[in-house]
Amino acid sequence: MKKSPDDMTAMEKEIWKEEVLRSVAETRKKCQETLENSEKTRAKLRETEKASDEFEKKWQDFQDKFSETLSALATNIGSSIGKSVGGVFKKPEYEPKKMSPEDASELLKDKRNIVILTGAGLSAASGIPTFRGNDGLWTKKYKYCETPEELATLKFFKVHPEVKWQWTHDFYDLCKNAEPNAGHKAIVQFQEHCKLNGKQCHLVTQNIDDLHARLIQESKILKPTVTSEGEPGFGFTDSVYEIHGNLSYSRCFQECSKALKPVQVPDKELSLEDQIPKCEECKSIMRPHVLWFDECYTQELHQAETVQNIITADVDALIIVGTALATNMASRLVSNCLLKNILTIDINIDPACDYGAVVEVEGKSEETLPKLFSSFKPKILKCESNGKEVDKNICSKALKKNPKVYPTKLRKIAIAAKAGKTKSGKNKKVTSKA
Ligand SMILES: [Zn+2]
């Protein structure tokens, strides 16, 4: 028969405490697995049947309560035996370090699986107002609605689609005329560096302004967005997960198909009703390809399951740019990393995290991101005979003819660059600048 803690010697008590802690940690690990499995099942369920908003809310409540209860349980047990219980459900201490982008960059050097999460703050320097900011389009008054939140709902669209489309066309004009800023460019450069160096870099954006996708389209190294209408996956790329959609596309409101169509600038002479685009197939109205506040994420339209899998994978660094984490998936993604004490670089005017291993980089993202990523440039190749920069595609063509000329590193770059167009070029011996 087991002794009660009161009858134990000091040594036995220590051993007993360790055993209790181990079993609590194991139980919590199992609970975490259950939660993750439930999450996967839920994602599958949602794909096969369109569950109600209520379901999503209940699920979120359940998940929050489950985490809270376990966290409280662990803390109680820990404090009752005089030890803290480490693990996934206890919020790690919050000791944010303020750092320069250059110093934060050093921390990224050995990281292999990085997630970048961006929000409206990133696009502010491109002239696109943030949703909760006090400027620009969001404060413009539209008929029948009081607040921008109200305008961005399915409920509103069902009653006044012409007003929602009026707003959409205004915002579309704004985005179309905006240019990606230095922050967007630095991110693409870092993505290219990762791809060429066998690292994972997942870019997840809450922005609907198309600015990431436009830059990715110009990259010869990253996987481009499918731009041929009618092709499977048209409008999507896994070089950027646009979890809230993209305003450059629309889809059938009646869902006769989920295929995306490019948004067109309407004839402003027409009445607002006549400016609403119509489905070519079933003649019903089209809707913007954007996730509204009263809607749920899906795999097909928002790549929700894919992003969920990224969250639960072995991420070793997270970079948050210009987001207050006010939306569901973004906050889940971040809290998953914070709870695991994963390095989190927070580039926000108002820091978005309140626990975890957070590094705060102060400053505007269009200024800090180029510094953060400046040492992660894709390699520039130089021709040995004339010293000129060599197009990676020429390198790839030359490699085909004579693979022995190139060191392994260059061969890798050339193979990765194969995706782009091939220009004509002579079989020149090249060497890396770096
Ligand atoms: Zn249709």
UniProtKB/TrEMBL annotation:
Pfam families: SIR2. Residues 28-58 form a coiled coil. Signal peptide: none annotated. GO terms for cellular component: nucleus. One of its GO terms (molecular function) is NAD+ binding. It comes from the Eukaryota. Keywords: Coiled coil, Metal-binding, NAD, Transferase, Zinc. The keyword Transmembrane helix does not apply. Residues 94-389 form the Deacetylase sirtuin-type domain. Zn(2+) binds at residues 252, 256, 279, 282. The active site is at 244 (proton acceptor). This is Deacetylase sirtuin-type domain-containing protein. It comes from Euplotes crassus. The lineage of its organism: Eukaryota, Sar, Alveolata, Ciliophora, Intramacronucleata.
